[in-house]
Amino acid sequence: MSLLPIRLGLQQRVLPVYRSPFFDALARLCEGGLGLFTGQPRPEEMIAVEEKMEAARLWPARNVHLFHGRYYLCWQIGWRRWLADWQPDALILEANPRYLHVPRMARWMTTRGRPVVGWGLGAPMNNGALSKWRDHLRRNFLSNFDAMITYSSKGAEEYHRVGFPQERIFIAPNAAAPRPAWPLPERPLDFFQKAVVLFVGRLQARKRVDLLIEACAVLPAELQPQLWVVGAGPQQASLEALAKQRYPETRFWGACYGDALAAVFRQADLFVLPGTGGLAVQEAMAYGLPVVVGEADGTQTELVRPENGWVLPPGDLQALTKILTQALASPSRLREMGKRSYEIVSDEINLEYMVDIFKTALNFVMRRV
């Protein structure tokens, strides 16, 4: 792969551990290297952050967190000094209007004739009396970017709907794992005693692990699985209490990484993420698992298809119970769906492909300089 003849800068509110392989791969693609400007989460977020990179260079930001929930805002202190020191030829910024410093960082680059690429989920339609005003603010925010990278075709459609030019939008499906370097894990056609249903992710309300516990509890006795929950987070204690009361077949593993997490994936039969987000979906597919994901921001639409999984309406316990019943009643079908998951990650959606799309977007903006 040819290198990009640039020094790249990239801003992140925080740098989760699972993102480090992607940023190191992107750093190796740039002749001048990659500088990462990133800060710390709030303690209650319980995000495991990366503190040392192999190829990318870290620059610590001081995050000032304002308010909570839907009113959350963030300001990162130190960005001007970082830009002046690193002097990137191109800059990738999180396209989140809640990050108040992002437009100023973009203007710093623009006044020096250097391109800025946004990276975001999309631009959901605003509703209510102030929707036109909010759309106007969003268009103003998006005008800071020379190109936009998003995870899905849904995100691309939303950016185009609010006026961002189609030819400047690039779709890089969300990936945490590289193309698998291992063969498809072999699993017996029948479950060993009980099926293993697996969740991997941060234990927070929006992941809806509570819904998964309740769904397992109301399944017919002959289909009830072992439920494995991997991860840590602010809801861990309350979820453990719920599981003890409603579904004692639940095992909480805590946070797992590397070989330990790979071993868990290999022993599972079905991966379920009932709520939002979830880079672990792509990683689960790399180990030949069929997947059930919550319908949320559209980031999983390229990954989850009828031949390898199910998309769950948000917060729908009845629908999740029906899907689990259907899935666990047919081990042979699950194995076929898992094989298709593995093929999708091997051939189409993986870390290498994500890096390649970022390279395409950067080449595009550099040609426009």
In short:
The chain has 369 residues and is α/β, with parallel strands linked by helices.
Structure description:
With 369 residues, the chain is α/β, with parallel strands linked by helices. It folds into two domains: 8-174 and 350-367, Rossmann fold (3-Layer(aba) Sandwich), CATH 3.40.50.2000; 196-347, 3-Layer(aba) Sandwich (Rossmann fold), CATH 3.40.50. It has twelve helices and 15 strands. The strands form three sheets. A seven-stranded parallel β-sheet has the order 3-2-1-6-7-8-9, sandwiched between helices. A six-stranded parallel β-sheet has the order 12-11-10-13-14-15, sandwiched between helices. A two-stranded antiparallel sheet has the order 4-5. α9 (280-286) crosses α11. The longest helix has 17 residues, at 331-347. The protein is globular and about 65 Å long. The two termini are 23 Å apart.
For the record, the CATH architecture of the largest domain stands as 3-Layer(aba) Sandwich
Q: In one word, what is the shape?
A: globular
Question: What do we call the CATH topology of the largest domain?
Answer: Rossmann fold
Uncertain runs: none
Strand fraction band?
15-25%
Total E-strand runs: 15
Describe the secondary-structure layout.
Blueprint: E1 8-14, H1 20-29, E2 34-39, E3 57-60, E4 62-66, E5 73-77, H2 79-86, E6 90-94, H3 102-110, E7 116-120, H4 131-142, E8 147-150, H5 153-161, E9 169-171, E10 196-200, H6 209-217, E11 226-230, H7 236-246, E12 250-254, H8 258-267, E13 270-273, H9 280-286, E14 291-294, E15 309-312, H10 317-328, H11 331-347, H12 351-367
Parallel strand pairs: 1-2, 1-6, 2-3, 6-7, 7-8, 8-9, 10-11, 10-13, 11-12, 13-14, 14-15
Antiparallel strand pairs: 4-5
Helix pairs in contact: 1-12, 6-7, 6-10, 9-11
